[in-house]
Amino acid sequence: MSAYTTLAGAYDGLTTDVPYEAILDFLEAILRRSGKTPATVLDLACGTGSMSLLLAQRGYQVIGADISEEMLTVAAQKAMAMEHPPFFVRQKMQNLRLPQPVDAVVCLLDSLNYLDEPADCRKTLTRVFENLAPGGVFLFDINTPAKLRALDGQVFLDENEDSYCVWRAEFDREENRCYYGIDLFRRAGKLWQRSFEQHCEYAYEPQTLCRWLEEAGFSRVEQFGDCRLSAPAEGEQRIYFAAYKEEKKS
User: b/e map of 120-139 (b: 16 or more CB within 10 Å)?
Assistant: First the structure.
């Protein structure tokens, strides 16, 4: 089964530890530091829309894009009560096409790693550049190769009252990919329903991404440690990037 199909309904309950507000605080610190004040933001690979909703609550005009219809359904339901909700669309990252350019694009929680074909990653970086307004910024993070390699053979458990999830990770060094086999058990009355999904992340080297960003047209690329306004440390598990599109010349 493809990623984030049956997992969509349980995703929010199993990821209550994700610090969305702290992540957005960090992204806004990058924006302030670079003098950027975006009005329109694309949340690329938005999933169940938690960051999209938070962006909208902070006054941005938000588009959320994702490939998973199931995740987008959850996102739309969460946004129903909002006065100015995000606008959600179903699109592949590598086929991104917006009606008009946005001031900023965010792509978070190692979503770029899920592009497990390097050609698709390069296409995505180009599509992001083309859908950014002049002076725009692309903010994203990755799981580092060091983190993904260290996951090999690891087993993780996530559970709440309604869901029980077992993740088994295997890193294929020849393919440079980390595979996650996910068994999900969800309560259905007195019984539990079992489903299985396989996820895959590609281990992108930061310097390779920087080169591809420059080839896509970005004029400047910065790297940061995990929610820190400083360069990544040795063995960093998660790295954030800020890629800038040059202002239109008068």
Answer: bbbbbbbbbbebbbeebbbb
